[in-house]
């Protein structure tokens, strides 16, 4: 598991891109682009929910079949249908979601590595 904490500033989404790409390449190089885009999108959406003294927590959890991405912030979730995060994430992730936690808002997405013809995982 890999973690990074970011201040809730507009530059946070750009700051986390390189880290996400490097981390994804260590485990699933074919997922590096998608990982970078999803993390940047979720962090960008977390910034407005994060107060000046708050932090955004970003986690990448590698598995044999892919990557799980989690982005947590101390704010309240955006009402259903009001956020832009899912438009891009839904086109890239195998599954995704969000929830309210005791610490605030948590969004997650799962990426699966490509399969070969016949369903065998590479």
Automatic annotation (TrEMBL):
Residues 107-122 have a biased composition (Basic and acidic residues). Residues 99-122 are annotated as: Disordered. It comes from the Bacteria. This is Uncharacterized protein. It comes from Microbispora oryzae.
